[in-house]
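Translate structure to sequence.
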């Protein structure tokens, strides 16, 4: 809790500076003064449950590929990998690199590790973009209220585009690598380049097929992915409640996911793109800018910076585990 209080203090300072520049200093000071800081513990609890979902999904996807990926190792990969992802947000490069390193050390071949990691991301983000489509559609047709139709349709378009693209990968021929290799043997610079690039769509095809097989055979991986996103959204709901009234659930979910889309922008910890995307989306839904700023910054402090210490501890443990594996080999 000491870290949570420190994070709250940082949010107070940064919110004051930010809103002083847009002429809403009085409003943010009022919200900070009347903040229900007792709910910080609830926000931390929700984030812990969110991480539990990620740990479970890690175990469900990677465990069958290697007995070394136990629940304990899954916890270490999660804490260290998620923190790396959030500190280097561009496409999750930080977490992908760390997870790949751990999987290779656990005995997975390069191809197997790539397929399993892509499968993990497919299950995880199927919930992300699927929810964006469902909630955006509900807001656009009036089943849920509070967001402009244009913003809701933007969410639907983003989610649908990604889902269609992912499913379209299944149309890639199963023997695409063989075809590309045969074409490369016949000569031509373009054919050789295609041969080198062929493994990427082939891996993606295998991953999407494996992801569909996994979620059809058991509901647990999908439930774990829902827990990861759902409890993280609950953290945002809690930080809004700390400073005032939270927006309607549809608005909260839509703006959360639209903000998270900004993770593709390379920026440490998502500071700027993710926060700015969320705040702008909430402002478009007529949520008080002062409330949105303090709530989103508080959410970012709990979800991104609070796990840094346990994440560093997990990274040290993971390095020790990898060293033991290599010694055994």
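Result:
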């Amino acid at each position: 809790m000491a870290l949570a209080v420190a994070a709250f203090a940082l949010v107070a300072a940064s919110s004051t500076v930010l809103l002083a520049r847009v002429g809403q200093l009085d409003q943010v000071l009022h919200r900070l003064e009347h903040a229900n800081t007792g709910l910080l513990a609830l926000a931390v609890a929700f984030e812990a449950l969110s991480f539990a979902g990620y740990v479970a999904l890690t175990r469900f996807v990677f465990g069958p590929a290697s007995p070394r990926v136990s629940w304990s190792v899954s916890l270490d990969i999660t804490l260290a990998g998620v923190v790396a992802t959030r500190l280097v947000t561009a496409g999750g490069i930080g977490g992908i690199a760390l997870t790949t390193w751990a999987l290779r050390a656990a005995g997975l071949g390069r191809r197997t590790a790539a397929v399993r990691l892509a499968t993990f991301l497919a299950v995880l983000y199927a919930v992300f973009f699927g929810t964006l489509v469902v909630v955006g559609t509900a807001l656009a047709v009036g089943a849920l209220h509070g967001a402009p139709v244009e913003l809701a349709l933007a969410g639907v378009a983003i989610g649908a585009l990604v889902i269609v693209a992912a499913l379209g990968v299944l149309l890639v021929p199963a023997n695409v690598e063989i075809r590309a290799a045969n074409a490369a043997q016949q000569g031509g610079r373009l054919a050789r380049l295609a041969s080198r690039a062929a493994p990427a769509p082939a891996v993606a095809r295998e991953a999407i097929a494996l992801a569909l097989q996994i979620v059809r055979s058991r509901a647990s991986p999908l439930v774990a992915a829902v827990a990861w996103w759902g409890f993280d959204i609950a953290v945002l709901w809690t930080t809004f409640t700390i400073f005032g009234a939270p927006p309607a659930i549809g608005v909260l979910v839509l703006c959360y996911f639209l903000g998270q889309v900004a993770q593709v922008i390379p920026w440490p910890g998502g500071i700027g793109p993710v926060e700015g995307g969320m705040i702008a989306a909430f402002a478009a839904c007529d949520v008080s800018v002062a409330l949105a700023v303090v709530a989103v910054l508080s959410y970012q402090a709990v979800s991104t910076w609070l796990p840094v210490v346990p994440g560093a501890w997990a990274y040290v443990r993971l390095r020790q585990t990898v060293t033991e594996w290599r010694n055994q080999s």
